[in-house]
Write a structure and sequence with these properties.
Layout lengths: L2 E8 L2 H32 L5 H5 L2 H7 L9 H23 L17 E4 L6 E3 L7 E6 L3 E6 L7 E10 L2 E9 L12 E6 L3 E5 L4 E3 L3 H4 L1 H12 L6 H35 L2 E6 L2 H4 L14 H14 L1 H15 L2 E6 L23 E3 L6 E3 H21 L1
Helix pairs in contact: 1-4, 6-7, 7-10
């Protein structure tokens, strides 16, 4: 199996400046390649491909020995592949009649990652076990100290350096990572995701929704007002914007930490976990409508969208699937259609069964339960049925 490890880098002052310069050079390469594609298509109606631009790298490096020539050749190829992937996605969206989203030029704050596609090709990871502090070699930067808070398993495939605010991180993508299966528990559970409660299990357990963004809303509002009062282009405005970004990054870390802890508990206690397939992008679509058909209850829908995104369902489900694969557990996704309206006792489905957000009362058999627990039982039943059908 494949797994990624993210470690904090501790560069010196000189190395930090070199990392910033590395990001700038790769960003300029990305923008120059994008400009070439645009101009060739505008003038000749032709599409420039990755192979065409990759073949020009030797000349570019020869013409700029102190800039592009100072960087890893393979990392520059990875940057050109990144642009090629953006164009591939652009053409795919056109064929699917979706909003195209033409690739954009990257400003200084919109290009924060450089990738080295192969270990020991312009980079080298110190894979010898030892103390918590190790080093990674990056061409043009040197040996940078890494705070490796856990051991790296498997074979290091790619390395990437990412800037987050004033911090630098190393991301290792490893192949052949051995699984760590857990002993069987004989337990199976269905989970219903929500906003009032983060999730409810078919066994009646509820996990509270921490609402990290709401908890930081006052500090974020204060920090954003400070940004509005600063002069554009000034260093004070830049520092105020960095404080806002730091608050948002903290919320993201809190959300990810909550997802990991919740997923770990579920994986440790259950052999099979069934969850509803959530179309989060559809659920959080704007209700503003158009000038001819204005949306209804727009403010309420905006608040609901914010609460759904703050809960971080997508992040949690991704973490849950990754942990299940490593632990040898089974995660089953079922359709969410009518799970909250169907009686888990007699299977009668009706809108009237759902009395309100928390209460469920079947109009056919009189069965009474917590609405989320009832939905979680239905999700578990559907998950077991799907598992049996796939095994047959």
């Amino acid at each position: 199996m494949r797994r990624s490890y993210k470690f904090l880098l501790r560069p010196t002052g000189r190395q930090s400046s070199a990392l910033k310069s590395c990001l700038k050079d790769h960003r300029l390469l990305y923008n120059a390649a994008l400009e070439e594609r645009r101009e060739v298509y505008r003038k000749a109606g032709k599409t420039v491909r990755y192979s065409d631009q990759s073949s020009q790298l030797k000349d570019i490096r020869r013409a700029d020995p102190d800039g592009q020539g100072h960087r890893s050749f393979s990392s520059q190829q990875a940057t050109l592949r990144r642009l090629d992937k953006a164009f591939t996605a652009f053409f795919r969206r056109i064929r699917a009649a979706e909003k195209p989203g033409y690739p954009r030029f990257k400003g200084p704050g919109w290009f924060d990652t450089v990738e080295w596609p192969k270990d020991r090709d312009g980079c080298r990871w110190d894979s010898v076990p030892g103390s918590g502090h190790r080093r990674v070699y990056l061409q043009g930067i040197g040996h940078v100290r890494v705070h490796a808070h856990r051991e790296v398993a498997g074979h290091v495939k790619t390395l990437a350096v990412r800037r987050e605010g004033d911090r630098w991180f190393l991301v290792l993508s490893c192949d052949e990572v051995p699984a760590e299966p857990l002993s069987a528990t004989g337990s199976q559970v269905g989970i219903d995701m929500g906003v009032a409660a983060f999730l409810t299990t078919s066994q009646g357990t509820q996990v509270a929704n921490p609402r990290h963004l709401d908890a930081s809303a006052e500090r974020l509002a204060t920090a954003q007002r400070v940004v509005g009062g600063r002069q554009r282009g000034s260093s004070r405005r830049r520092k105020a914007r960095e404080r806002v970004g730091a608050l948002y990054r903290k919320v993201r870390r809190q959300r990810l930490d909550h997802a990991h802890k919740t997923a770990r508990r579920l994986i440790a206690q259950h052999d099979l976990i069934a969850h509803e397939g959530l179309q989060i992008a559809q659920m959080t679509r704007s209700a503003s409508g158009t000038a001819d058909t204005p949306g209804r209850n727009v403010a309420q829908k905006r608040g609901l969208n914010r609460s759904i995104l703050d809960a971080g369902w997508g992040v949690f489900l991704n973490v849950l699937r990754a942990k299940a694969e490593s632990a040898g557990r089974t995660v089953v996704e079922v359709t969410a259609r009518d799970t909250s309206r169907t009686c888990s006792s007699c299977r009668h489905c009706a809108r009237e069964n759902r009395v309100n957000q928390a209460h469920f009362r079947c109009v056919a058999c009189g069965y009474i339960a917590h609405a989320d627990v009832n939905a979680a039982v239905n999700i578990l039943r559907a998950g077991l049925a799907r598992q049996a059908a796939e095994s047959a």
